[in-house]
Amino acid sequence: MDIKNICKGLRTGNQKLALQTASQKNIALNAVINSIEKNRQQILEANNKDVEAARAKGMSQALVERLALDDKKINGIIESIKIIIAQNDPVGEEIAGWKTPDGMTIRQVRVPLGIVAIIYESRPNVTADAFSLAYKSGNAILLRGSSSALTSNKALVSAIKEGLSSQEAQGFGVPEAIELAPCENHDEVEEILSAVGLIDVALPRGGAKLINMVVEKAKVPVIQTGAGVCHLYVDGTADLENACEIAYNAKTQRPGACNAIECILVNRKIINEFLPMLVEKLAGKVELRCDKESYEIMKKCEKPEYNKKIIPANEEDFGFEFLDFICAVKVVSDVEEAVDFINTHNTKHSECIVTNDRNNARIFQAKVDAACVYVNSSTRFTDGGEFGFGAELGISTQKLHARGPMGIKALTTTKYLIDGDGQIRR
Three-state SS for 100? Predict the structure, then answer.
């Protein structure tokens, strides 16, 4: 991969976008929507090849689900771009402004980050989401997906470039603002991460292994996005039926997503009532890896059809991102123990308490260290689309620059614009 030439083209795209108005960028994004619609069948056929190859290699069903596209997901991609078009352009927004005693005017305004590189796994919808967010915020983007989704990503990028180059874009499209790495070998990732002065920021999006590798090897700035070891704490005052529904949704709706729960903590006061309910709700579908106290209760509730879905947990099961129909279960004494356990074992992504005690809810939200902290709702809502951003570049689990679902504003920084009329410092 010729990273220098690729970034040279992307920088040209970034500079062209920097001069465009919101309406001009929106015209181009509308052309991209129509191109994706026009090429829908080709995109789905390309994706089907990736899915068939993944299954042949033994990829788990949860990960195949992340890889697969269908008409509903294509519709979701298009709807996400429409939402991004409808959002205010953050570029040029004046955050602060004042006049100095000697007459200079100082304005702090939002500007694009520049060239953004995203290194991601499996999900081809990220290709379209990342592009549209970057484009609307004036950034050029280098996409480095996984080999398992390469055929899908090529089809999507081809459709995007076709839209940007079409007459419908009215000359405002900037096809130089997007490039897809060839995905020929793993050396490409290190080239990207070592491209100091060429890449302005890199974002990993995928499992813990990918994220840790990027953070450890990067020489360019990195926004760390989220492996998701997410917890659900069922408090002693919780509505137990509600807690079961939230646990079921947060674990099973999409177990391969980073906002799915990986561990359920249960207050000791309610274990005899709640744990049998949890077995009834989950055990036929989810393997439950239980600490000693919960295992003694839950094993008694196991039915033959559960096919040994209730087993003792190992210590390494706590703090592990399963990304599958597997969940750890642990008993705790109170909200304070739950908070301590979560802060020791989580990845700062999304955490939830189910409770009818507002004081415990306040303690949990104040003390848990995570980007998103829920009371009485599923962690599955941690998503740019659900937050109204249209899409997201990832879920930032760090504290500097951006945290949580990263929408348009997360892809901007600021600069100070100073206007004077001859002032000099004395």
Answer: coil
Distance, CA of 189 to CA of 198 (rounded, Å): 14
Number of neighbours of residue 419 by Cβ within 10 angstroms: 10
Q: Is the pLDDT of residue 62 over 90?
A: no
* Strand extents, DSSP E, 162-258: 178-180, 201-205, 230-234
Secondary structure (3-state) at 2: coil
Backbone dihedral region of 56: left (phi > 0), alpha (psi from -120 to 50 degrees) or beta?
A: alpha
In whole angstroms, give the CA distance from residue 332 to residue 335: 8
Question: What Cα–Cα distance (Å) separates residue 46 from each residue in 67, 119, 207, 260, 396?
Answer: 12, 20, 24, 28, 30
Surface-to-core class of residue 266, CB atoms within 10 Å of its CB (0-12 exposed, 13-18 middle, 19+ buried): buried
Buried b (16+ CB within 10 A) or exposed e, 302-316: beeebeebbbebeee
Per-residue exposure over 6-30, b if at least 16 CB sit within 10 Å of its own CB, e if not: bbebbbebbbbbeebebebbbbbbb
Give which of 231, 264, 331 is closest to 291, Cα–Cα: 331
Is 387 in a helix, a strand, or coil? coil
Please give the Cα distance from 358 to 297 (Å, whole number).
29
Radius of gyration of the chain (CA): 24
Q: Looking at residue 393, what is its pLDDT?
A: 80
Q: How many residues does the chain have?
A: 426
Collapsing DSSP to helix, strand or coil, 416 comes out as strand
- Residue range 3-10: mean pLDDT, rounded: 96
103-119 residue pLDDT tens: 999 999 999 999 999 99
CA 257 to CA 264: how far, in whole Å?
16
